[in-house]
Write a structure and sequence with these properties.
Blueprint lengths: L3 H14 L3 H31 L3 E4 L4 E2 L5 H24 L5 H28 L3 H6 L5 H29 L8 H24 L5 H15 L2 H4 L21 H18 L3 E4 L1
Antiparallel strand pairs: 1-2, 1-3
Helix pairs in contact: 2-3, 2-4, 2-7, 2-10, 3-4, 4-6, 4-8, 7-8, 7-10
Length: 274
């Protein structure tokens, strides 16, 4: 019995330390880009083109058009929240999926949910961004802003619990494995910031969108990844295996190609018309 313990410990340590960082970064980057395209492309651009706008410019940081509406302003958040629910259901339901696929679905859920819930708080505090446009003209204006802040705090806290618990239950990362849990969450956070900032720097609207929107929205909205483990219920236990994330050149290659397209094509802006 005593001789077997070191073997088990060594096996556990090996599993904790074998996550391939490059693959994790690629998976997180792909998930972030998808959430961004859903927000700007489907949530803002498509709704605008189907309702009030004959044309506009789509980039990684904004949908720019001479025509606007409250529905267009709200669309990005609503699409993110709907997408987060879909990704969560997929993550919960695909029990036989690989750990890489489950991690991708987890990050997709996280980025969509944190962006969707975080925007309420961001616009309420700063009176800037999508939901500042939604409540523009509504009175008393300060009361609406305070309402956004309150909704944002509660919704974001719920999002943190959901995402943090899903990393344990459905990805299989034990809450007791603080080092691995932290590494995966930090990799997702940093990957999102790098991709968001790189794409934002290429946008034709101006650097102010990077400083006022892209960077704070990503760094602020996704900061829940850094501290969500402290809010995961202690009763949460892994329901799936906790295999290490092995190196995957298909994931890495796909991430590299789509990141280049995200930065140098969508980042520069794509004109869209009805």
């Amino acid at each position: 019995m005593a001789a077997a313990a070191p073997s088990r410990i060594q096996s556990t340590l090996s599993a904790q330390q074998c996550d391939d960082r490059l693959t994790v970064w690629a998976i997180a980057g792909l998930a972030f880009m998808l959430s961004d395209v859903l927000h700007e492309g489907l949530g803002h651009a498509l709704i605008a083109l189907l309702t009030v706008s004959p044309q506009g410019l789509l980039s990684t940081v904004a949908w720019s058009s001479a025509y606007d509406s409250k529905l267009v302003d709200a669309g990005g958040t609503l699409v993110n929240l709907a997408a987060a629910g879909i990704f969560w259901l997929l993550l919960k339901g695909l029990k036989g999926a690989s750990v890489r696929t489950r991690l991708f679905l987890l990050f997709c859920c996280a980025f969509n949910l944190f962006t969707g819930t975080g925007y309420f708080f961001f616009s309420g505090v700063t009176d800037f961004g999508d939901w500042a446009g939604v409540i523009n003209g509504l009175h008393p204006h300060m009361a609406w802003r305070m309402g956004l802040v309150a909704v944002g705090v509660l919704a974001y806290w719920g999002a943190v619990v959901v995402v943090g618990s899903a990393l344990v239950r459905y990805v299989g990362v034990s809450l007791s494995d603080h080092a691995r849990y932290g590494r995966l969450a930090l990799a997702g956070y940093l990957s999102a910031i790098v991709v968001s900032t790189s794409g934002g720097l290429m946008n034709p609207v101006g650097l102010q969108y990077v400083l006022l929107s892209a960077l704070p929205a990503t760094a602020g909205a996704d900061c829940g990844l850094l501290w969500m483990r402290y809010y995961v219920p202690k009763t949460a236990t892994p329901e799936r295996n906790s295999d290490a994330v092995a190196r995957s050149w298909p994931w890495i290659g796909t991430g590299l190609v789509l990141t280049l397209a995200f930065v140098f094509v969508l980042g520069r802006g794509i004109p869209l018309h009805r």
